[in-house]
Amino acid sequence: MSRNRVTVNGRSYTWPARPLVVVCIDGSAPDYVSRAIDAGCMPFVRDMLARGADLRADAVMPTFTNPNNVSIITGCPPSQHGICGNYYYDPATGTEVMMNDPGLLRAPTILEAFAKAGASVAAVTAKDKLRRLLGHGLEFGRHAAVSVSAEQADRTSIGEHGIEDLTGLVGMPVPEVYSADLSEFVLAAGVALMRRQRPDIMYLSTTDYIQHGAEPGSEGANAFYAMMDRHFAGLDALGATLVLTADHGMSAKHSADGSINVTYLQDALDARFGIGPTRVILPITDPYVVHHGALGGYATVYLADGQDRDRVMQHLGQCPGVLSVYSREDACGRFSLPPDRIGDIVVVATAEQALGTTEAAHDLSALEGPLRSHGGLAEQEVPIYSNRPLTPPRRRLRNFDAFDLGLNAVAAG
Prior knowledge:
Elements: E1 5-8, E2 11-14, E3 20-24, H1 30-38, H2 43-51, E4 53-58, H3 65-74, H4 78-81, E5 87-90, E6 95-98, H5 110-116, E7 121-125, H6 128-134, E8 145-149, H7 158-161, H8 166-170, H9 180-196, E9 201-205, H10 209-213, H11 219-237, E10 241-245, E11 251-252, E12 262-264, H12 265-273, E13 278-281, H13 289-292, E14 298-303, H14 309-317, E15 322-327, H15 328-335, E16 345-349, E17 354-356, E18 372-373, E19 381-386, E20 397-398, H16 402-408
Parallel strand pairs: 3-9, 3-10, 4-20, 7-8, 7-9, 12-17
Antiparallel strand pairs: 1-2, 4-19, 5-6, 10-19, 11-18, 13-14, 14-16, 15-16
């Protein structure tokens, strides 16, 4: 490590000439920004894209929050860092596990590597489920580092988060989890930290509460993007390089009358093979059921010993709304997944379909409005925007190229 280059996970990064802020706009398909610009709601981003960069990239599969945020912050795919969902099944213990424990990480983060090389770094996320993953390897008190969540902003301490009185710094109370305010707190905290501490590198990650309920161009979506536009302008005015991307897009998973398009895979398998030979896991599962009711576009299936995988795959391929079915080996090869953390089979739904386990297992009473969700290939294309011209590599970009672009491909000057 040196003040010239920092190498982590097989990539070498130039030391930032000015502060770099990478923002993951959770659930932001490119249409959200283009429609907001057309409606006159994002004047700063409109002008920023004219002078900077307006690119497209692929998120990692499955297109869920945890694997994509960790990919962005490590610069590598799930096969390398190990986080392949919000949730996974550990067959060794027979338990279903939330993937928010940094002990599950198999790769250091870019923030950790720069902090150890002497940089000041900060990470602000909306939900506390991500905070410990993003802050993995940071030694608060020794490193000039901050890792906080808006959800727990009133409980920050130097020893655990690297900062005290975050709400006082931001000038906002702790927001409701199910609100646009949670994302605004993240961005306002980013501006406040840039103004007070001027980190060399900062990562901001919002929540997709709005995108789960509002389609691109709607009044609610445009108001949300107008709010973000103001904070992006604030970061730009403080001299930061901005790179904006997303962890996934968002698709409507409902019919015209608002009824949910869902295929309950465990019900379908139990009806064909009986109860016990198969176990369906939904890696979208997390505590925030109002967002999606644990219904997404991706599932993985574990088989009991002796089960004929080809027969099960053939049956799954005939289920309504199933786009593709992969063996573990094929899924790992195509999507760069860790083979020991997915099932024997991976199922991907069509754009308009959601996948569930059993109808009885999903309490959808908390859903607010028609279902919009993610997880499949339909939500894989995301934007990469920058306030400075970029010279990207000649290949299809990934969202986890964000730090590489902001440090290695940004125009000098």
